[in-house]
Amino acid sequence: MGTKLLCLCLLAALLGYYIYSPLPQDLAEPWTVMLVSAAFRAVGHLSEAAELLGLMHYMESLRLITVVELVAPTSDENVTVTETEFEQVPVRLYLPRRAAGGLRRAMLYFHGGGWCLGDAGMHGYDYMSRRISNELNAVVVSVNYRLAPPHRFPAQFEDVYVVTKFFLQSEVLAQYGVDPARVCVAGDSAGGNLAAAVAQQLSEDPEVKTKLKAQILIYPALQALDLNLPSYRDNADKPILSRSLMVRFWSEYFTSEPALREAMDSNRHVPAESSHLFQFVNWSRWLPAEMRKAHAYGGPTPGGAELARRFPGFLDPRASPLLASEARLRHVPPAYILTCEHDVLRDDGIMYAERLRATGVPVTHHHAKDAFHGAVTFLLWPFKLAVGHRLFDACLDWLKEHL
Ligand SMILES: *[C@@H]1O[C@H](CO)[C@@H](O)[C@H](O)[C@H]1NC(C)=O
Ligand SMILES: *[C@@H]1O[C@H](CO)[C@@H](O)[C@H](O)[C@H]1NC(C)=O
């Protein structure tokens, strides 16, 4: 009996030690965040173990997070939810049921998950799409683009691009009763990356006559050039996206070869002949002083000429929208950008806001000092966070006024 009790106490202590992680003082709801963080860490560790044992690719087991969160496309009293395909790409469609009273708004939504995970049907995303559809009286097209592995850049981009382009045709907009002047793209994390890239490409596409009204970028990933920005240094181990996981997501977007991941991890993956691109992600120029903090700008070490030849994608603005020239940025739609203080991707979003403003694009930048990466997806039990609701509601309010 005594031994059993001792074992139980030991186990509880170990579990407590595993779950406990010191969090920044200003993070809201620290206990829930700690549980969320521990759950993600546990899945990460199990995935690493499965990969080491040669059972499964790391991303395949990480995808379990997506699978347990899936909900069927079910209509409710306000919104009709169906699944279909646009140009052979699966999409989940949300159509408001209330009387239209004129033409509707529309949003193309791209979910997050590092180009490797996620699904429009995950509980949190489904909930967001429903509320947007109902409260904005909007048609929401949530895209299930192909994921890595097995699909690499530019498959993810191409999928969301063809869906957007298909939807923007005047016959299609008319079929759904959508006002061509009130369509936006939106996404979080890797989906924010895709939304920014789609907005750029559309503004230069002579075949597209309909202009987007807005782009909503929720803690987007916007560049793979410098993976040692102050936000990467400050938040290397914050919930739920560590620096090493982000490096893994970036490299998996292009290849599973460890060489790229290792080069990115040491920030030596951009060859000297591409060093002119650093001006676009030069944080000593684009970050406000309070974000630069005490960090000294060094600039990445050149390297990886061979890698850049084989995987040129990470130097492509369709993967790294921050690399777009001023001339390209000038024509993109007004942006709503959310950044979180405790997020490796914080500085990507801040620099994009600064660069867009510098070219004259209207930007609403909302910086949440008490939030971490992914906060907006934690809207439902068991991981319901007040900060997630606050940030989502702020975004909805902006859309009500600007879309
Ligand atoms: C339907 O819309 C109303 C008004 O916005 C809301 O109060 C209600 O909760 C919605 N129903 C569902 C199932 O979301
Ligand atoms: C970065 O910006 C700083 C300040 O604007 C400048 O002195 C430095 O030369 C720039 N470095 C690169 C690599 O662009």
From TrEMBL:
Keywords: Disulfide bond, Hydrolase, Signal. Transmembrane segments: none annotated. Residues 1-16 form the signal peptide. Residues 107-257, 315-375 form the Alpha/beta hydrolase fold-3 domain. InterPro entries: AB_hydrolase_3 (IPR013094), AB_hydrolase_fold (IPR029058), Arylacetamide_deacetylase (IPR017157), GDXG_lipolytic_enzyme (IPR050300), Lipase_GDXG_put_SER_AS (IPR033140). The active site is at S189, D343, H373. Pfam families: Abhydrolase_3. GO terms for cellular component: membrane. GO terms for molecular function: carboxylic ester hydrolase activity. Belongs to the 'GDXG' lipolytic enzyme family. This is Arylacetamide deacetylase. The gene is AADAC.
